[in-house]
Amino acid sequence: MARVRPVLMMIAAGVLASAAGCAYKPIEPWVKPYERERLAAPVMKASLNELPGRQQDHVYVVREGSRGATGVQGGGCGCN
Amino acid sequence: MAAIKNAAKVAGLAAGAVAASSVQAVDLPEDRAETMYHLYDGGGVIAQGPAVLVRKSMLDRVSLSGSWYVDAVSNASIDVVTTASKFKETRNQGELGLDYVVRDSLIHVSGTRSVEPDYQASTLSFDLTQDVFGGMTTVLLGYSHADDKVGQKGTPGWVGTAHHWQYRLGVTQILTPRWTASANLESINDDGYLKSPYRLARVFDTYVHENTPTTRESKALKLSVTGDITPEGANNRRSFRADYRYYWDTWNVRGHTLELAYNRELGPGWLLESSLRYYRQNHALFYFDNAQAQTLYFSRNRELSTMHDFGPGVTVSYTLRSIPGKYDVKLSGSYQFIDFHFSDYTVGDTGKPYSYHASVFNTVLSATF
Q1: What predicted TM-score, i.e. pTM, was given to this entire model?
Q2: What is the three-class DSSP state of B14?
Q3: B135 in contact with chain A, both atoms CB, cutoff 8 A
Q4: Contact B244, B223 (CB under 8 A)
Q5: Which domains does chain B carry?
Q6: Which label site among B49, B152, B212, B258 has the fewest CB atoms less than 10 Å from its CB?
Q7: Closest partner residue to B220 among A35, A39, A69, by Cβ?
């Protein structure tokens, strides 16, 4: 028993030392605002205008069984 | 006038207002006006009409929007000419929206109303978009509720009502100065009159009115990556996008959608957008081309059949006039070809699988100011 205690003490000391080394350090945003110019370019948009997306969404949702998660506003009848 | 309408899909659509369900950076939408003429021609159906949209901000915090969309439909599709007669009708859809910016949040509220002779739908939507992590991550939460009234030509009043609940959750992440990724999940739940009062099913070679469940719960998950692939030193920018959507519902429909897009600037004021889209699904539990057993639910709605479609699309935009920081005016034209194939929807008594192709066209005159 007398031999076990020093071992436990050493393990506890090691754990504490490790914990101290793992102090919380938040992840910094790695793409700065001034580096996002390319992401805002018109060529990166799925569509320049809003209305064509509504037509396209309508065309598909009335002819396919799937719906949702398209990011486009729908609405109305499935008659076309 | 006899007509075949897709009330089940109408119901799903009428829930509408998936406004802003794709995640965007938290900025007020830019002031803009759009006018569009749109045309769909395929499978005996021609749908066309104008659409307009105006969006204007005030006090740097609020943006108001209004839109109007007209669908004038001439329908002589295969199920219409087989079991009924060709018909024409017009759908009008109007929407009013408000966007409000508070710190790093964008709140969107909108109301939509769609009216046609035998179907009316009213939708209210709410979306909250929040920038976090230094603007590198954008989170969206959204909810819509819609109430529909379903009518039938020749029958006074309404033959039924339907209600829809939509829940949206989305995340967009900036990965690098050139690439972003997003994930969008949407759940749509329907309750009420989800069948069509017109559509006929075929049971033991006899045409009878279809009968579908009165509830439907669906989910769709869409994953997307978009990147700037402009070579170093090139003047004209290029981008690439890949989308995949998986869909599943309680009617046992499973759908896969894959879309690839390539955009590039062609020169000063010119922009080309091109895309390829592929979709496939299996049939619903109660879909039968010609049912050979007695079941409680049965439908011959080909949107619920085993089918796939494929097609390319292209859009060209040109800036007619631009004064940086003040306004610009653009004109665009778009064409899309779609090839539809149905594995278990046959043509009349021939037993041949049905297929057709469609052309989708629109032209837009838009201005930002």
Answers
A1: 0.88
A2: helix
A3: yes
A4: yes
A5: 7-28+103-368 (2.40.160)
A6: B258
A7: A69
